[in-house]
Design a protein that fits this description.
The structure is a single chain. This protein has a domain of 143 residues: Helix Hairpins (Orthogonal Bundle), CATH 1.10.287. Helix content is 78%, strand content 7%. The chain has 4 helices and 5 strands. The chain has a 5-stranded mixed sheet.
């Protein structure tokens, strides 16, 4: 049994309420960095998609330039073979050069078709990139607004936590040191609830009935007792 005045009891109950509220707020505050990290990860996904599309466009343009270079090289080969036509001495050599020129032109035709297809792919990819960049910009704006809101919430929560911390410290100064020490031990051992009310002979900490005699004594005396089931400090409302 612990003798206690009603004022001390009220202070102890308020201390527990403050500290439990502080813990809930702190838990909410601690979740904010994770929420911000999730938002940043979402934004990185957009950035990754954008980079991949830029790399795809760069590869397509490189492919296009290679085809254009091949066309230029083949055009030079055609001109060279056409010049050689004027100096051949046999019909066989002449026909061979004509066939080579025709083969190069056929190759060029295929290269030109592939180049046109490559240009179409570049155009489609650049349009897709523009769409992704727009989506990225919109998502970035949305995420920045959400992050700002989270930062505001974090500050507000911290202000409330600081206020409760100060209030709890002021209450603790008014309580007996031994009572506070026992209260702390019980909070640690009993899931954060050291003191619980009893209503209609039921402990609100474990929701089990206490013995009738103990209930009667609690109603008559200014004392704290321990619940025989959950071992919390109990009092009558």
């Amino acid at each position: 049994m612990i003798s206690i005045t009603r004022q001390q009891l009220d202070l102890l109950v308020t201390l527990q309420e403050n500290e439990r509220q502080q813990e809930r707020l702190q838990a909410e505050r601690d979740r904010i960095p994770g929420k911000k990290a999730e938002l940043e990860e979402s934004l990185r996904a957009y950035e990754q998609q954008e980079r991949q599309k830029q790399e795809e466009i760069a590869a397509l343009k490189k492919n296009y330039r290679a085809r254009e270079n091949e066309l230029e090289l083949n055009q030079s080969r055609i001109k060279k073979r056409q010049t050689q036509l004027n100096s051949v001495k046999t019909n066989r050599e002449y026909q061979s050069l004509l066939k080579e020129i025709d083969d190069i032109r056929s190759t060029n035709s295929r290269i030109e078709d592939a180049s046109l297809q490559c240009l179409d792919e570049i155009d489609a990819a650049e349009k897709d990139l523009a769409t992704k960049q727009q989506a990225h910009a919109e998502e970035k704006e949305r995420i920045e607004a959400q992050q700002q809101e989270l930062e505001n919430t974090a500050r507000q929560l911290q202000d409330r936590i600081d206020h409760l911390t100060q209030a709890s410290a002021a209450i603790e100064e008014q309580l007996d040191a031994d009572l506070v020490r026992q209260y702390r031990q019980l909070r640690k051992r009993c899931g954060g609830v050291a003191i619980a009310p009893v209503e209609n002979a039921v402990c609100k900490g474990c929701y089990l009935n206490i013995p009738p005699q103990m209930y009667n004594e609690l109603q008559r005396e200014n004392e704290l007792r321990m619940c025989p089931h959950c071992h919390r400090l109990i009092y009558v409302l």
